[in-house]
Amino acid sequence: MTSEERWVIAGLGNPGPWFTKTRHNAGFLVIDRLARRHGAEFRWYGTKCRLAEIDIDGRRVILVKPQWFINLSGNPVASVLRTYDVPVERLAVVHDDLAFRFGAVRIKRGGGAGGHNGVRSVTEALGTRHYTRLRFGLGRPPKGQQTGKYVLRKFPEPERSALPAVLDRCADAIEALVVRGLDKTQTELHSAPGAGEE
Fold first, then answer.
1. Which of 24, 116, 130, 190 is flagged as catalytic?
2. 25 in a labelled binding site
3. 190 noted as active-site residue
4. Looking at residue 103, which CATH number applies to its domain?
5. Model pTM greater than 0.90?
6. Which of 7, 79, 87, 93 has its CA 20 to 30 A from that of 179?
């Protein structure tokens, strides 16, 4: 199988049970949803990542959950790309984003980190911004609440009840990206009902 037929989808989050289902682990939650959807199990890749491999319409897709803390995600992601000989154009990074309301899902290629240290780490490790990002909207923290505390808290109700549908929307977008490409995925995702940024 050639590198042109492979994708790497990396979800950003923090390892360990304390961080499970916190807002900052939205990337991990999406990757877990994709793995369950395709009946895949994760295995260790050295001490850097947990990996699972799935097939999406004949494309081999490596799902990655870096096991260093989120601010150090870049080195593990870059290592997987090298090992599997996957070009950066076929990397998608899934991460939380405060710029969008909860439930909004956006996909783009390139752009700045927007204050997200995990994204910054990936960009620095790869030496380029030319990879795809699936952004999971969290919304801004309430006035007076520190951003760090906000993203490290678990999803509250009613967000917890809505979370499965949002994760499915993210998983659908990743599958569409792999099969139909970025432009068609952007059109479908961003024009869907309720896709507005506010």
1. 24
2. no
3. no
4. 3.40.50.1470
5. yes
6. 79
